[in-house]
Amino acid sequence: MNHQDEIKNNNKITTEAETTDKIEIKFENKNGLNNQKQEVKIDNMSDQDKNKNGLGEKWPEPIVRVQSLAESNLTTFPDRYIKPPSQRPQITTINHQPEAAAINIPIIDLESLFSGNKDVKERMSEACRKFGFFQVINHEVRPELMDAAREAWKSFFNLPVEAKEVYSNSPLTYEGYGSRLGVEKGAILDWNDYYFLHFLPLLLKDHNKWPSLPSNIREVMDEYGKELVKLGERLMRILSSNLGLKEEQLQEAFGGQDVGACMRINYYPKCPRPELALGLSPHSDPGGITILLPDDQVVGLQVRHSDTWITVNPLPHAFIVNLGDQIQILSNSIYKSSEHRVIVNSQKERVSLAFFYNPKSDIPIQPLQQLVTSNNPPLYPPMTFDQYRLFIRTQGPRGKSYVESLISPR
């Protein structure tokens, strides 16, 4: 039985959208180990409500930086990072690196696609329907900018710990320097540190919450963010057209130009027991489109395809694109948001930059009317992105359990 099957068998997750600014999340565990009932007012949530629902200014336990653990010459591996046997990666190694699978996710040449190549358009459509993942090349983002962004964050994570702690985050916004997702006390944690920051809407963009070191990081990330917003818009037009919709229709469903954009920079330190741990547990992304700049020297991303975990072979200066749950919902499951995870390495650290292109937070997202028929009724109830992403912010990554719990019975 795989991790996803265990979730389906052991847990029942239901939602009840009572108003446009309230959602009730019920998470029931048949073993009686995790009975919870949460009612969260999203838009006008008071500080008292945020604290009551685990979204306050403090994490449930003292934060331990994974990088500090990795650099402490551990004599035993901490139990808090040991995954249950069914969730542990099956890692084979060649020269101390995880072996990349012969199968890879589809590779899409955007320049060829925009030149009218029908074969490339069909390949991308098939990738969205079967994988939910693909790599893009010739995407018009300068290789020098991609390299500069990655190197700037490597420099940040190599700073002394006290320089980074200035930017420590909280469960309330996740913005800043962090080391865990979810607020469940005693949860098994992932082997990574990260930095989360906002680009859009502009009212959330605050350079004071961005690192000031290295000295070029704010300037580089400003330019990088603008370029990836443009790329997100281009990808949305292609996705929409491939569904048989007007090019602008998915973008309009996201809020037009009033969309959200944020980034999580993931730092995966060397791990002394990579066969016991994960850098990031299985999950599907809750948002719209994720544009990932991977470390093309150290593999780590794995995508679930059928019953197999595919280790992605990143191409130099390519982006890995994956569709999030909001695209699956809008497409009425024609497009797929795939479960993925990250494995870690005993010999090399790894840095990746995940850029999230998301809907406006307070717009109800539901299957587009043109994709609903009598034979293909709407599978999902309306729900805002604010309401939706609350699940991962409280529960942490849990496969595809949440989006699957919302599917209406046929």
Model description:
Residues 258-359 form the Fe2OG dioxygenase domain. It catalyses: jasmonate + 2-oxoglutarate + O2 = (1R,2R)-12-hydroxyjasmonate + succinate + CO2. Residues 36-59 are annotated as: Disordered. This protein has 410 residues and is an alpha+beta fold. It has one domain (68-373): B-lactam Antibiotic, Isopenicillin N Synthase, Chain (Jelly Rolls, Sandwich). It has helices spanning 3-10, 47-52, 66-70, 110-114, 118-130, 143-157, 161-165, 217-242, 249-254, 325-330, 385-395, 401-405, and strands spanning 11-19, 22-29, 36-41, 93-94, 97-98, 107-109, 133-137, 176-178, 193-200, 260-268, 280-283, 289-293, 301-305, 308-311, 319-323, 340-342, 350-358, 364-365, 383-384. An 8-stranded mixed β-sheet has the order 6-7-15-12-17-10-9-8. The chain has a 4-stranded antiparallel β-sheet with strand order 11-16-13-14, with no helix packed on it. A 3-stranded antiparallel β-sheet has the order 1-2-3. Helix 6 (143-157) packs across helix 8 (217-242). The longest helix is centred in the middle third of the chain and has 26 residues, at 217-242. The protein is globular, with a radius of gyration of 20 Å. The model is unreliable at 1-53 and 92-98 (pLDDT under 50).
Keyphrases for this structure?
410 residues, alpha+beta, Jelly Rolls, 8-stranded mixed sheet, 4-stranded antiparallel sheet, 12 helices, 19 strands, globular, disordered N terminus, metal ion binding
